[in-house]
Amino acid sequence: MPIDLEALQASDWYHDDMRQVGVDFADAAQVATYDARQRSGDAAAAALLAELGLKAGEVFADFGCGTGVLACQAALVGGEVHAIDISAQMLAATRQRAQALGATGVRTQQAGFLSFQLPASSVDCVTTQYALHHLNDFWKLVALQRIFAALKPGASFMLRDVVYSCPPSHLKETVDAWLRWMQEERGYSREENVTHVRDEHSTFTWVMEGLLERAGFQVQQARYARGVYATYLCRRPG
Ligand SMILES: C[S@@+](CC[C@H](N)C(=O)[O-])C[C@H]1O[C@@H](n2cnc3c(N)ncnc32)[C@H](O)[C@@H]1O
User: Fold this and answer.
1) Could you give the C-alpha distances from 136 to 13, 129, 139, 229, 235, in angstroms and in order?
2) For residue 38, what pLDDT band results from cuts at 50, 70 and 90?
3) Ligand 1 in reach of 116 Cβ (< 6 A)
4) pTM of the entire structure?
């Protein structure tokens, strides 16, 4: 039985997801250095969209779009693109990138997973990378159900995030190895990245997979890396 999303949204305890949790992506310095540190590449984004089967004329949405790498590549494929993020600064960077690449058809929406507005059953393909962990597990389920409701039956959904796949007994070694790697390879100070583990809401793969299934998705493929990254290719059943 799906959640009654409208009734939930009318509650006085509905979460305000316009507030940054953990790393502040409304901070101009975070936005300015983001691409260099993440190494978000156009080629990798284009390859991912090809894998998801996005075609010209289809409706695409990226949640927590950041500087708009995926959104702009989707627009270059010919998609009708919704780039959605709570950070006005990130959305400005997305619009700048779209202009520089000549990627028309990118519509930005300043909203979060719990507040975005898209018509029901209107989207062919949704992606979200490294953003859902800003919500705790309770709100992740609500977010996933809202995404499910926005997708057309049969449509695809890709979720990529920091999700712990290591055995719980290996958490300390796994997290410390990841923090070292982020410092050496990506230029994130230990303190910046410690924030992710300490204050944000990354969960375990078995919890995330339960949430995806409860939201109604079929998980078609799960890929794990470094004990801390997971990519899920999912489908809203037709
Ligand atoms: C780590 S960045 C990821 C950016 C981009 N998806 C990427 O892969 O490079 C996280 C993004 O999620 C956004 N964000 C944070 N909380 C959010 C929420 N509740 N709903 C939607 N986006 C959110 C931040 O503003 C930021 O742009």
Assistant:
1) 14, 16, 6, 17, 23
2) low
3) no
4) 0.94
